[in-house]
Amino acid sequence: MIYWIETSDMKIVLIANASASSVTARTRVVIQKALSADHEVELAETARRGHATRIAKGAAAEGADLICVLGGDGTLNEAANGVVGTRTALAPLPGGSTNVFARTLGLPEDPVHATAVTLEALESNSIRSIGLGSANARYFLFHCGVGYDAAVVEQVEKRGQLKRWAGHSLFAFAAVDTWLRHYGRKSPHFSVDFGDDATIDDGYFTICLNTDPYTYLGTRPFHIAPAATIDRPLSVVTLRSLGAFRLGQLALSTLRGDKGVSSGRGVDVRTDVRSFRVLSETPFPYQLDGDYLGDVTSIDFEWEPDALRLVVPDGRHVPRPHDIL
Known about the structure:
single chain, alpha+beta, Tumour Suppressor Smad4, two-stranded antiparallel sheet, 9 helices, disordered C terminus
């Protein structure tokens, strides 16, 4: 749904992650100046993991109208978790290496250009209430990966100092290295329980998506579940094997077109899922919006409609007329 509010002279908190790949001192100054032309703006820089959540939560409690996040997907996820369920809106400004959620919304990759688009959206009151997924009570904007891809993210984070410079090449290397050395391929890692006796008992890799694409390789999107949008419940894709041929086939199909992955031999695809559970007797890794969160033995997934107020560029994810308030 869309909320029609007064968007002139807003109280804005600009959260910036100076460690993000595309964030520079000059970029911060230019963006802060642009936002300050018609609004009251406070700059807050993150200093450690989890800091953006605390900043956003405090800003919402103090009546901030909008949180702008200049950083990568991890910083954006933290800020979103700080404002979920409040009247404070969120606006992403791409500053990371991939910026999946910002690009999914149609924002330009240049953060200064994205700021101009965001200001235009504010002028036209393009602020929407969207649904989010949650994993063990932590919200995610675009996806949660369980198993193999979380193990890949773990390996990338171990080489964090290279991430700013190597970008997508580092992820490609980590994907191969993880498949060869860091994630078992001989036996399943977990079960996926959808209730009503619908259980997958041989999961190796599950992706729960709130939006599509899953990620980008350079300019190419990985379309895994096109049905996943901010207007409907979750899509869930589970791989029941990690054979090289199967993974290669899936990677090529998701890069070559926009039809996504279909259920078939070794693959289970479900759409409009409101809740499910992943569990195992032995710990398995998971990641949220590209941040590795460690190993667990169970994850409870939920979809929550109207969880977050989001600034959406005009022309993207336009709601049906009856969704407008």
